[in-house]
Design goal:
- The protein is an alpha/beta fold and 206 residues long.
- Helix content is 14%, strand content 31%.
- The chain is built from five helices and twelve strands.
- The strands form two sheets. A seven-stranded mixed β-sheet has the order 4-1-2-3-5-6-7. It has a five-stranded mixed β-sheet with strand order 8-9-10-11-12, with no helix packed on it.
- Helix 1 links the parallel strand 5 and strand 6.
- The two termini are 30 Å apart.
Length: 206
């Protein structure tokens, strides 16, 4: 019998700005265990940087919770600094990102911390549009937060899960979707949607 797919949220840091549910804003990455493959979605924040000081980041020792050697594949939902700060830890693993997102991160001013995106040895697998990275796990473009944002959709035969990055930053943006990416998520009719800045997954109203 195939084991049920799991998504494990891992808190990497928090910011001194209010989240949708109040308090400091958490910064999560998510580990997917699916049919013998372990996928890390986003890499959070690993180091302090002067450019982020106005957000008062409080870093947590998340790499002590996750066996980095157990990660087979890395996905960046997008390349803002709080989503790619640990990319340099995975130089031997493919990092999937939409090509549009990678091009923007490397060309637009004040978009991200480019030195984190271009960390030595990081090997991006740039994709164009919908891509199945392993059976049952797809990447789908989800424009809105950035033009090149993507979501991860997991189908294991029993449930459909979405890891959405910042396609929605708080639950209300999925309750009343406005962007192309938010509308896409709701049309997928997922059982649960994990966001980078909420502690718990969003679930559709019944």
């Amino acid at each position: 019998m195939t084991e049920r797919t799991t998504v494990t949220p891992v808190l990497t840091a928090d910011f001194g700005v209010e989240a949708g549910s109040g308090g400091r804003m958490p910064v999560y990455v998510h580990v997917i265990d699916h049919e013998g493959t372990r996928i890390l979605v986003d890499t959070g924040i690993k180091d302090q940087h002067p450019a982020l000081s106005d957000m008062d980041p409080r870093l947590l020792g998340w790499t002590e919770e996750v066996d980095l050697s157990s990660i087979d594949i890395v996905v960046n939902t997008h390349l803002h600094a709080d989503h790619c700060g640990g990319n340099h830890l995975f130089v031997s693993r493919p990092i999937y990102v939409q090509r549009r997102e990678l091009d923007d991160a490397l060309s637009l001013e004040d978009y991200t911390l480019r030195e984190w995106v271009e960390a030595p040895g990081v090997d991006y697998s740039a994709v164009d549009g919908e891509t199945e990275i392993v059976p049952g796990i797809r990447l789908l473009p989800a424009p809105g937060h950035t033009d090149g944002s993507q979501i991860v959709v997991v189908d294991d035969g029993e449930q459909r899960l979405v890891i959405a990055g910042d396609t929605a930053v708080w639950f209300g943006e999925l309750d009343e979707p406005a962007t192309e990416g938010q509308k896409l998520i709701t049309t997928l009719r997922p059982d649960a949607v994990w966001l980078s800045h909420e502690h718990l997954p969003w679930r559709p109203r019944t």
